[in-house]
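In the design runs reported in the main text, the only information available to the sequence generator was the tokenized backbone. The following block is the verbatim input for one such run; it is reproduced so that readers can re-run the procedure and compare outputs position by position.
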């Protein structure tokens, strides 16, 4: 049986700080890896890897992440929609000593009111185009 295991953020993002792993106890991970066969693949984005693993074709220059997430976030809307979908998620830029790190939206929480204001601002700024932003339920 073939099982692919995807563990986002398993490794510390700064490859120069290898000492972070010194004396790290991970017995469950050690057992799992001891029963596995390692494969090396070129680095790629998680979304690209997932699409390839599930035989989802690349569309022009990009992977169809937004429509896939629409199916997850709003399945009823996904079944009836004929629109083109884009996805925008808030992120947090964290300033470190000599670089900036990009953290996903789990690093902070925004209220529904803040999200609605962001959507209003984006639609106001980009209102001359033939698309709009909306908050998914």
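Verbatim output:
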């Amino acid at each position: 049986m073939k099982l692919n295991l995807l563990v986002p953020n398993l490794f510390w993002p700064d490859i120069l700080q290898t000492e972070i792993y010194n004396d790290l106890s991970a017995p469950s991970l050690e057992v799992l890896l001891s029963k596995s066969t390692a494969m090396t693949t070129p680095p790629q984005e998680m979304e690209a890897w997932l699409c390839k693993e599930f035989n989802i074709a690349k569309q022009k220059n990009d992977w169809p992440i937004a429509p896939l997430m629409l199916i997850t976030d709003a399945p009823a809307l996904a079944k009836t929609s004929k629109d083109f979908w884009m996805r925008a998620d808030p992120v947090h830029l964290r300033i470190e000593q000599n670089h900036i790190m990009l953290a996903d939206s789990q690093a902070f929480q925004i209220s529904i009111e803040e999200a609605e204001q962001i959507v209003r601002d984006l639609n106001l700024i980009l209102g001359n185009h033939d698309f709009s932003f909306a908050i998914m339920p």
